[in-house]
C-alpha cells in the first residue's frame, strides 16, 4: 500500500468515527442518520437517540452516557422546545465545550459531515447556518 | 377563557405540549405548577428558551397556583396548566374545586412504576391518588396527543386490578 493510499484510508476512518449525537422525537434521529448514510455513506458520523418512551431524566442520562462513551460534544436536536433539547441544555450547564444545534434538518447534517477537518463546534455552527439557508418555501399558490 | 387543559406530564414543557396541544388549541399561556421549578430561575429560563414568543410561560408553586387559578380562568388567552406528577395535580385539586377534567399525558418509566400504556407508568401510590381524584368527581383520561384516543383512567386502573387478581 502506498503512503498516500494509507493516508486516504486513515482520513476516511476518521471521517466515519462518531462526531455528534442526533436526538429527537420518534424515528427522527434514525431517519436522519439513514438519510445521511444514503447520500454520503457517512451515516456513522452520527449516533441517533430517540426520546420515545423516555422521561426527561432518562433522556438526559442516556445522552450523557452516549456522549461520554463516544467522547462527542456536539448535539443535533429537532425541536427547540423538545425534551431532547431541554436535556442537552441541562448537560451544557455543567459540561464545558458542548454545542447544541436545534431545528436540525438534513442540509445541516450533510454540511457537518463534510466539515470533518474543522473543530466539531465550528463545524456545527457552519452546519447550522447551512441548514438555515436551505429552508425555503417556493411556488406562488 | 377557561383553562383548556390540565395536564400531568413528567417532561413538563416539551414538544407535545408546546406544539402537539399548543397549536390546535391555540394555546397562548402555559402555567407550569412545580414547586422546584418555581424557585429556580435557571430552570425557568431552560423552559422559556424554546417556546415561541407568542406563548407566555408562567411558573407557580402549588400555593401560588391555588391563589392565582381564578385569574388564569379569567385570562382571555387559551391556556394549559401543567404539573410534572400526580401528587402536585392532586394538591392543586384540593385547593381548586372548579377543575373538572385531567389529562395524563406522560408519566414515564422509573423504578417502582408499572407500565399501563406506552406513555403511562404508575406506582401503586400514584394509582391510589388517581382513584381518589376520580372519586372526587374529576374526569381523568390518558392521552398523549390530541389525535390519540383518550383512555379513561378507570379503564387503565381496572386493568391493574385485574392483573393483580389474575
Short description:
The complex is a heterodimer of chains A (141) and B (166). By secondary structure, chain A is of the alpha/beta class. Helices cover 55% and strands 13% of the residues of chain A.
What's the structural blueprint in terms of helices and strands?
The complex is a heterodimer of chains A (141) and B (166).
Chain A: H1 3-16, E1 20-24, H2 28-40, E2 46-50, H3 56-70, E3 74-77, H4 83-94, E4 99-102, H5 106-113, H6 120-134
Parallel strand pairs in A: 1-2, 1-3, 3-4
Chain B: E1 3-9, H1 15-21, E2 29-33, H2 35-38, H3 41-49, E3 56-60, H4 62-74, E4 79-83, H5 86-95, E5 101-106, E6 114-117, E7 120-122, H6 124-135, E8 139-142, E9 151-152, H7 153-165
Parallel strand pairs in B: 1-4, 1-5, 2-3, 2-4, 5-8
Antiparallel strand pairs in B: 6-7, 8-9
Helix pairs in contact in B: 4-5, 5-6
Features:
heterodimer, A: 141 residues, alpha/beta, four-stranded parallel sheet, 55% helix, 13% strand, B: 166 residues, seven-stranded mixed sheet, 7 helices, 9 strands, 25% strand, globular
Secondary-structure element order of chain A, N to C: HEHEHEHEHH
Whole-number average pLDDT of chain A? 90
Helix content of chain B: 40-55%
Report, as a whole number of angstroms, the end-to-end distance of chain A. Answer: 58 Å
Q: Total strand count of chain A, please?
A: 4
Q: In order across it, which strands form the biggest sheet of chain B?
A: 3-2-4-1-5-8-9
Amino acid at each position: 500500500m502506498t503512503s498516500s493510499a494509507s493516508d486516504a484510508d486513515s482520513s476516511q476512518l476518521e471521517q466515519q468515527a462518531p462526531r455528534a449525537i442526533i436526538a429527537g422525537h420518534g424515528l427522527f434521529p434514525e431517519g436522519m442518520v439513514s438519510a445521511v448514510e444514503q447520500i454520503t455513506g457517512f451515516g456513522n458520523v452520527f449516533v441517533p437517540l430517540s426520546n420515545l418512551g423516555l422521561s426527561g431524566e432518562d433522556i438526559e442520562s442516556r445522552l450523557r452516557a452516549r456522549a461520554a462513551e463516544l467522547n462527542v460534544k456536539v448535539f443535533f436536536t429537532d425541536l427547540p422546545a423538545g425534551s431532547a433539547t431541554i436535556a442537552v441544555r441541562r448537560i451544557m450547564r455543567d459540561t464545558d465545550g458542548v454545542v447544541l444545534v436545534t431545528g436540525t434538518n438534513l442540509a445541516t447534517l450533510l454540511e457537518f459531515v463534510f466539515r470533518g477537518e474543522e473543530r466539531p463546534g465550528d463545524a456545527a455552527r457552519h452546519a447550522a447556518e447551512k441548514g438555515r439557508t436551505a429552508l425555503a418555501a417556493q411556488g406562488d399558490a | 377563557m377557561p383553562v383548556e387543559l390540565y395536564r400531568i406530564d413528567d417532561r413538563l414543557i416539551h414538544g407535545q405540549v408546546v406544539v402537539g396541544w399548543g397549536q390546535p388549541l391555540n394555546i397562548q399561556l402555559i402555567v407550569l405548577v412545580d414547586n422546584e421549578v418555581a424557585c429556580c430561575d435557571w430552570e425557568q429560563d431552560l423552559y422559556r428558551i424554546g417556546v415561541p414568543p407568542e406563548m407566555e410561560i408562567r411558573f407557580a408553586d402549588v400555593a401560588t397556583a391555588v391563589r392565582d387559578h381564578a385569574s388564569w380562568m379569567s385570562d382571555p388567552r387559551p391556556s394549559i396548566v401543567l404539573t410534572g406528577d400526580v401528587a402536585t395535580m392532586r394538591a392543586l385539586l384540593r385547593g381548586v374545586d372548579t377543575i373538572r377534567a385531567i389529562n395524563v399525558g406522560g408519566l414515564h418509566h422509573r423504578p417502582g412504576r408499572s407500565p399501563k400504556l406506552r406513555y403511562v407508568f404508575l406506582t401503586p401510590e400514584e394509582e391510589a391518588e388517581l382513584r381518589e381524584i376520580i372519586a372526587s368527581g374529576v374526569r381523568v383520561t390518558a392521552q398523549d396527543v390530541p389525535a390519540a384516543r383518550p383512555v379513561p383512567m378507570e379503564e387503565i386502573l381496572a386493568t391493574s386490578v385485574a392483573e393483580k387478581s389474575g
